Hints:
The chain folds into three domains: 1-79, Archaeosine Trna-guanine Transglycosylase, Chain: A, domain 4, CATH 2.30.130.110; 120-242, 3-Layer(aba) Sandwich (Ribose 5-phosphate Isomerase B, Chain: A); 248-475. Strand 8 (104-109) and strand 9 (115-116) form a beta hairpin. It has helices spanning 131-140, 165-180, 199-206, 225-240, 270-283, 300-304, 310-329, 340-344, 350-357, 390-399, 428-433, 451-466, 472-475, and strands spanning 3-4, 12-15, 41-43, 52-55, 58-63, 72-73, 78-79, 104-109, 115-116, 120-125, 151-154, 184-191, 214-218, 246-249, 254-259, 287-290, 366-370, 380-384, 404-409, 421-425, 440-441. The mean pLDDT is 95. The protein is 28% helix and 19% strand. Strands 17-18-16-15-19-20-21 form a seven-stranded parallel beta sheet, with helices on both faces. A four-stranded antiparallel beta sheet has the order 1-2-3-6, with no helix packed on it. The chain has a four-stranded parallel beta sheet with strand order 11-10-12-13, sandwiched between helices.
Amino acid sequence: MKLIRIHPADNVAVALEDIAAGESPEGFDLTAAEDVQRGHKLALVPIGKGQPVVKYGCAIGVATCDIAPGAWVHTHNVRTGLSEGGAYTYNHKVLPMPEPRQYTFQGYRRPDGRAAVRNELWIVPTVGCVNAVAKQLVEQNQHLVTGSIDGLYTFPHPFGCSQLGDDHAQTRKLLAALVRHPNAGGVLVLGLGCENLTMDQFKRELGAWDDERVKFLTCQDVPDELAAGAALLAELAQYAGRFRREDISASELVVGMKCGGSDGLSGITANPAVGRFSDLLIAAGGSTVLTEVPEMFGAESILFDRCASEDVFHKAVAMVEDFKRYFVSHGQVVYENPSPGNKAGGITTLEDKSCGCVQKGGSAQIADVLAYGEAVTKKGLNLLSGPGNDLVSATALTAAGAHLILFTTGRGTPFGAPAPTVKISTNTALYDKKRDWIDFNAGTAAQGESLDSVGERLLTYVLAVAGGEKTRAERHGAREISIFKDGVVL
C-alpha cells in the first residue's frame, strides 16, 4: 500500500512511499499528476478554491486555488484556517479504552514511597556561572558510578541571575522540581553566592527535603569548590548506593509524550501508536503527560471534549488561551508553525500538525491540566502547559515527574532530557538510517502492522527501559535542559 486515506471524510490521502507522476496507487481511482514524496498529500476529489482540505476527518486548511484529483496538496495551494479568536464549548465524550491489565517493571522504591526508573546522582546548578564547576565535578567523580548507581550528571543552563518576575520564578520553580525528581537518588545543588537566585531562596522554593538525599554547596563560601563538591558527592553516593531494583507496578509510572522533527507519517504511525500505549498504561492505572500547547492549536477541541469534568475543561481552555495571548503579546500570529523541516516532511499547516500531534493522547479522559513546573498528582492523562520547543518541553515533562519520555520523530534528533528519552521513528527508513538515534520503529504501522500491535510492542519496550535498559540518548550521554523564558535580562 502506497497511499492511505486516514478518515472516510478526508478529501486527501497521504503517500506512505514516494509516488511518481503518472502512477495510479493501488486501491485508488486516481493518477498522480506530479511526483509526491512520502508523507505528502494527494487530492482524492476536486477541491475548489476556498473549500476546506480535510485530513483525519478534520479541516486542516483552506485551498487557495482549485485543486484537481491526483494533484499534490501542500503549502503552494493550501493556507491555514486558524485565527487568534475562537470560542469553546464542553461536549463531553467518553471513548472506549482497553481492558485493564497488570504489568510490572524493575524499579527503585524511594523512602517517601515514590517509584523511580533510575538511581542517579545529579548536580543542579542554581546559576549559569557555576556550569563549568558542575561539569568538572562530573568528570572528576565518575568513580562514584558503581553498584546500583546508574550515573552522575549535571544540567547546565544560563539562568539564575539577572532575571526578574515570572522568568526568575520559573527558573526557581523548574530547578526545584528537578531536585525533587525520583530518578535522582542524590542531588547536589550548586550555587555561586552572589546570584539573585540565592541558596536561601532556593531552599524556600524546594520546601522540605531529605538531608541525606540533597546537599547544598555555595562556591564562594569554600576555599576549594571541587574538593568540597567531591566530598558531598561521596556522601550522596553512599546514600544512593543503598537502593536496589525491585518489582514495582506499572500503575506507578508517569510517562511524558512529545514529538519533534515531525513528518507526514507522524499522525499515521508513531503518534497514534503512542496513543495506544498511553491508553494501555492508563488502563493499567498509570499516568501520561501531553504538552506542546502551540501544537494543539486547531485540534484542541479533540482534547477538550475528553476532559473528565467541566472544571478540567475550563483549565484546559485557559491553558490554550494563555498561550495564544503569549503569542499575540509578542506581535506573533498563533499559527506561525510548522517548521521548515515539518513542511519538507509533508506537514502543510498548523492544523495538519496539531491533528497528528494530539493523537499521542489516545482515547483516555483528561484527568488534570498542569501549569509549567507543576507535578503530576492525578492518575491518568494530564495536559501540561509548555511550548513546542523540544528541549524546553522535554525539560518541563521531566519537571512534571515523568519517569521517562516518549519522543516521536520523522526526521530524527540526538538530544535527550534528564529523564530517559525514547526516540520513536515514524518511518522505517529513518530507523534504518539513524540506528544510533532511534530506539523504536513505529514505521511498521505503514507496512501492515496494526497500531494496536505497535502500541503493545511499545509498552513492552517502555517497561524494559523503566527496568534499566538504556536508551540511545543515555548511551551517548545526551542529557540537557532548557528553561522557558519570556522577559528581560538585566
